Amino acid sequence: MQVQPPHEIFSFETHLRSMHPASIPVSERRTHWRLSPEGGVWLGVTLLVGIVGWWKSFNAVLLLAYVMLGLLCMQIYTLWRRRCGWQAHLSPLPTVFAGERIRGQITVTNATQLRADCVVAMQIGGQTLRWYLEAVPPAQQQCISWTAILRQRGRFPIQVQVRDSDRFGWFRRETTISAGEMFVLPALGDIDVPQLRRWLELQASGGEMLTQTAPRRMTLEPNEVRGVRPYRPGDALRAIHWRTSARRRQLMVREYDDTTCGLPVLLTLLPPTSVGPENLAERWEAALSFATTVAYFWPQIGHAPLVLTIAGDSPHILDIPPSGQGLRQILQPLADPAAFPPTPGPWASIHRKVRCIHLLLPTEGTLAAYSPEALPIAPSAQILVPLTLEQLPPWYTPAGRLVGINGGAV
Questions:
Q1: Burial 148-159 (b: 16+ CB within 10 A, else e)
Q2: Cα–Cα distance between 106 and 400 in angstroms, integer?
Q3: What's 190-220+261-406's CATH class?
Q4: N or C: which terminus of the chain has fewer CB atoms within 10 Å of its end residue's CB?
Q5: Strand bridging mode 141-150 / 10-19
Q6: Which class does domain 10-185 fall in?
Q7: Among residues 147, 138, 149, which one has the least CA distance to residue 106?
C-alpha cells in the first residue's frame, strides 16, 4: 500500500485489511476500458509489421505480427473477464471542527473473475490520497481505514476514484464516485463554564440597557433541582449535596434547571466590510472560532436560548438548542457562510422585544457607529455587551492558544 504525502493542512494515517465478500454495501458505476497511448502505439506497430511482412513476403516478420496480434487478443479476452470492474464505498463523514480528528473507511471490492491490481484515490477539496492494492482476489473486499486532521475551515467536495489497467498498460479504466461534501467548522477553543455563568449574571445585573427601563437584578438562585453531578472548581459551596457526597465519598453538587441568569443571549458577529489587510481574514476566523466555541459549550452553561447572527447583506440567524442536539448540522453555515442562504429563524419575527444579553463582536473597527438597524436582530430591550478580539472575556481560551499549550490540535 502506497500513500501520497499529505498536504500541510491535512494529517493522515492509514491501515489496510481484507474483508469477507459482500460484508459491506458498495457503490458501483459501470465504466468501460479505454485504449491507452501505449496500447495505441502497440496496435499501430502490429499493423505496420503485418503490412510490411505481407507486402514483402517476409515470413519471419509476418509471424512476428501474428504473435503481437495474438498477444493483444489475449489481453482483450482477459479484459472481458474483468468487465465487471471495481466497486467502492466511502463511509459517511460527519461534520467536524477544524483540528478535530476524523476517522473514515473506504471499502473496495474486486468484482471481476480474476486477481487484479488497482489504485484508489480519495480527493478532499484539492488534496489527494492514493493507495495501491496489489493482487486482490476475486470477490474480495479491501478495507482502507484512514484517520485525518483537517486544519482549515470550509466545505470540501469528496470523490473516490478507482483506476486499473491490464498487465501491459495497453488499456485503462477509471471509476469515479462522488461522496458529497465534507463540512469543517471553525476551530474550537475552551470555556470556563462556571466563570462564564458568573459573568452572565454580572452582565444581567449591571449591564447597560439601551432602553429607559432600568434592569432588575438577576441572580443564580435555583428554581428546581434537576439532579446531582460531580463538583467542578468554581461551583458554589452552597450547592454541594452533602448527603450524596458522603454516600459516594466525593463532592457532589446540585444541578438546577435554571443554571444561568435566565436571560436569552444573542451573539452577533460583524464580518469585515471590505478586503483589507491580510490579518483581516485571521481576525474573521478568530471571531467565528469564538462564536462556535460559545455554541458548543452552551448546553453546559444553561437552558436559556442562544442565537448566533452574522450581520451583512445576507444575514444568517442560527438558533442553538439548549440540549445541543444536532448542533453540528446547525453550525454548518459557519463552514462557509457565503455558500448558504440566509435563515430567518423564529427570532426575526417573535423575539425582537424580548429582553436579552446582546454580545456584539466586530471584526474590524469599533462600535462607535453602532446602528441597530444594520443588525439581523436588535431587540428593543437588550443589555448591550461590546466585545473586541483583542480583549475577549477571561473565561474564553482561543483555539490557537490551546494548540500551543498541548503541542497539537485539539
A1: bbbbebbebebe
A2: 32
A3: alpha beta
A4: N
A5: antiparallel
A6: mainly beta
A7: 147
